[in-house]
Amino acid sequence: MSRKNKMHRIGLKGLLAYTLCLSTSAWSQVPAALTRPGLVAQDSINGADTAWMMTSTALVLLMTLPGIALFYAGMVRKKNVLNTMASVVAAAALVSLLWFAVGYSIAFTPGNGLIGGDTRLWFSGLDYIKEAGKVAVSHVAPNVPESVYAMFQLTFAIITAALIVGAVVERLRFSALLWFVGLWSVLVYAPIAHWVWEPGGWLAQRGVLDFAGGAVVHINAGVSGLVCAYMLGARKGYGRESFEPVNLGLTMAGAGLLWVGWFGFNAGSAVAADGRAGLAMAVTHIAASAGAMTWMLGEWIVRGRPSLLGLCSGLVAGLVAITPAAGFVTPLSALLIGAVAGVACYWGATGLKRLLNADDSLDVFGVHGIGGIVGALMTGLLASKTVSGVQGDVVVQLMGVGAVVAYSGVMSAVVLWFTNLMVGLRVDDGAEVTGLDITQHREHMGT
Amino acid sequence: MLASEKLAIAAHLHVLLRRKTGRVTDTQWMADNAEYATEIVRFARQSAAEDGHVELVPWADKLEQAVLPAAAPRIQDAKPLTPSIMPTVRSLLASPAAQAEAGDSAFDSARYVRGLR
Asked: Residue A104: which of A129, A54, A138 has the closest Cα?
């Protein structure tokens, strides 16, 4: 059994259990496990794994650019399409630079339970030394070059920030978006990633399971989106005027890209081209399909007609919910997770939305927040020891959900408050009526 | 009458007014506020009389009955732009396909008032 399977995203409890499963003879043939990033011999890198991780990185980036940009742009009014797209592109670029400078180091190097260290600031130490035949690897993914792993994780940081855009479209100043996303990425996303995914993180040490980001990405983005919606206030005319989506065809194209890209997101999170990655890919597809069908059925029963937006939303709900579970559950469990998520997120984007009374414009909390919570809890219920060597625990998962909800909610509010001090949050009423394409970018869509 | 039924009538009229006259109205406010509804009913009837948009009249009548039952006679007396029975008859002659299309659009319009899903 190779070393590559040992480390990734199963928490310390999982690591210990998994390690116990290794036979003594096999263990004796494997070099001691890394506990921090370091240089290893070039020939210890697995070529197939590396190729798959580079492919997955591209797939996950494709989910944001253009996936999320199209998905969101199709749902806003025509006067705000370009601003929505610009927000996603700018978030991707800004988060990339901050991840390179700070984020990766504080998320994925050993430090304490709350925050990582400074050894990888500015990607320092991500070396490839040809003459010595050495390459840097992360202790979290020792079978691929650290540069590849850092880039793979970067695409997760990007998409998480980009998801929040959906809650603030059509009234947030572009400059405020840049301030918020930059600060949020470093102060909120990176610490939570450390808690859950770095083996020394306090949630990882307590056995919280989050294979590909149900809590780190989706609950985090959903809660932050909800806080943003409350603090920003509703769009002018919300609840009285019809905010008709400009082109749900764009949304469908975006949803298709998300579905395909999610194979990199979940199967890539195995950090290996192996059986677990294959199973993660299969369960991802099953859950997406189940989510699309149950959302569609719910809408058909409640509203009388199934909609394209409902199908697209349902498939995303299924994908979100299977994200924390992808490396831990069987295909049958995936069917259940996707099916439950489709119904739960339909409620989240309709009934719960009315109860919360927040103008979460594109239902970031309803889909990503609720889907992430459903997925996290069902992972605790359905994680199969046969698949991953670890047993799920709903109480532990609940603790993880609570911690992420609390930290993300409070810190998002703090970051928004600071952003408001710096540049103000909302465009003025006139600019909102005119549209953010013209007022923020001096651009407009053709007819 | 249920609030949702009032809103549906207002949404129908909203779409028809936008298509026929270019005027953009506030659907929810039309269903909630008698003064605003009065003005919209007056405008719809005026457009029907002056520009021949007879499809507006039956929906103006419905809105009047739904939101302003007591005020209906006053509005008609004050603005006798069109005999109420004639537009209704004429509207029956309007293309069923056009009416169905307007109805579907009105449904969509009401649907997006408080959310996308």
From this structure: A138
On whether any CB of chain A is under 8 Å from the CB of B67, the answer is no
- With an 8 Å Cβ cutoff, are A346 and B117 in contact? yes
pLDDT of residue B29: 85
Mutation pick from A78, A241, A316, A433 vs chain B, by most beta carbons of B within 10 Å, is A241
Tokens of B57: 């009249």
Whether A48 shows a pLDDT value over 70: the answer reads: yes
Give residue A113's pLDDT.
97
Nearest Cα to Cα of residue A95 among A64, A66, A69, A74: A64
Q: Look-up: residue for tokens 């978006």?
A: A177
A245 and B112: CB-CB below 8 Å?
A: yes
* Closest Cβ opposite residue A240 in set B29, B108, B109: B29
The answer to whether the complex's ipTM is over 0.85 is no
- Contact call for B115 and A363, based on CB within 8 A: yes
Closest approach of chain B CAs to the CA of A241, in angstroms? 5
**Minimum distance, in Å, between the CA of residue A288 and any CA atom of chain B:** 18
Average pLDDT over residues B58-86: 62
Sort out which chain A residues have CB atoms less than 8 A from B113's CB and list them: 239-243
A443 found inside a domain: no
Q: Using an 8 Å CB-CB cutoff, list chain A residues near B27.
A: 240-242
How far is A168 from A363, CA to CA, in rounded Å? 10
**All structural domains of chain B with their residue ranges:** 3-111
Q: In the predicted model, what is the mean pLDDT of residues A125-154?
A: 97
Q: In Å, how far are A89, A96, A191 from A65, measured between CA atoms?
A: 7, 13, 24
Task: Give me the pLDDT at residue B107, please.
Answer: 55
Q: Is residue B111's pLDDT more than 80?
A: no
d(CA A400, CA A186): 20
Indicate the number of domains in chain A.
Answer: 1
| CB pair distance less than 8 Å for A242 and B116 | no
For residues A260 and A62, is the Cβ–Cβ distance under 8 A? yes
The answer to the question of residue A441 being in a domain is no
A444 in a domain, yes or no?
Answer: no
Range of the domain at A120: 3-435
Alpha-carbon gap, residue B20 to A394, rounded angstroms: 58
Question: Are residues B26 and A237, on separate chains, in Cβ contact within 8 Å?
Answer: yes
A244/B117 CB distance under 8 A: no
N-terminal to C-terminal alpha carbon distance within chain B? 25
Residue A390 located in a structural domain = yes
CATH number where A44 lies: 1.10.3430.10
Is the previous residue joined to A66 through a cis bond, with omega within 30 degrees of 0?
yes
Chains A–B, number of C-beta pairs less than 8 Å apart: 51
Per-residue pLDDT band for A170 (boundaries 50, 70, 90) equals very high
- Length of chain B, in residues: 117
Using the beta-carbon criterion (under 8 Å), do B110 and A242 form an inter-chain contact? yes
> Which has the closest alpha carbon to A176: A425, A438, A4, A373?
A425
pTM summary value: 0.80
| Contacting residues for A423 by C-beta, under 8 A, at least 6 apart | A173, A175, A176, A179
Among A1, A363, A298, CA closest to A167: A363
CB B116 within 8 A of CB A166: no
